Amino acid sequence: MMNIEEFLELSAGKWFSHRTSHFVATQKSEGNKSDIIFEFLPADHPEVIKLCEQHEVNSSKASCGAKVTWNGTKEFKGEKYSGSSVLVLVPDEDKSNEGKLLHKMSGGEKSLLTGRYKLGSDEALTLTTESETIWSEERLWFASPNLRMRVSVVKGKDGFSMASFSSEIRMGGAPANAKASQAANSAK
């Protein structure tokens, strides 16, 4: 069974993502393509410590984190988009593969979010966040060592609702290892 640190380490590298999003209210779909850089951050990394401080969480309780940067294009409009976020995982005392999720999106203090993470026995990672205006749940898993899948649901307090599916292909970075192969084989 993979632990949460191994899951994030396996995610490190450069990924090509193709996402299809469905907007419930308008019944329209939109495709996006992006390059994603996923960087594993150990518990003692300065960005992990800083985010813990911003969330007023003792950084010694953090297990690890990640920095995710993306650049993409919306297929229909050709609009470019980019951004980054930092995630820190703080495990529950009795369960190391689930706990508090600290999240900061690029864009300042208002971008601080908290939520929950859980790495299930099926080796899929579920991230849930909620703010005053929006709720989201995202599930990620490896279909093979260099192919990751992601589904998400986002709901706004104003009635906004969107569901997305992404397939992500590793383009470089961290080499796939035995744990990734094992995770991919167990997913089959």
Automatic annotation (TrEMBL):
Keywords of this entry: Lyase
Enzyme class per UniProt: lyase
Record-linked InterPro entries: Calycin, CpcS/CpeS
A matching Pfam family: CpeS
Residue ranges the record marks as coiled coil: none
Gene3D superfamilies: 2.40.128.20
Gene Ontology biological process terms from the UniProt entry: protein-tetrapyrrole linkage
GO terms of molecular function: lyase activity
This enzyme's EC code(s): 4.-.-.-
Similarity comment text for this entry: Belongs to the CpcS/CpeS biliprotein lyase family.
Function: Covalently attaches a chromophore to Cys residue(s) of phycobiliproteins.
HAMAP family: Chrphore_lyase_CpxS
Protein name, per record: Chromophore lyase CpcS/CpeS
Taxonomic source organism: Tolypothrix tenuis PCC 7101
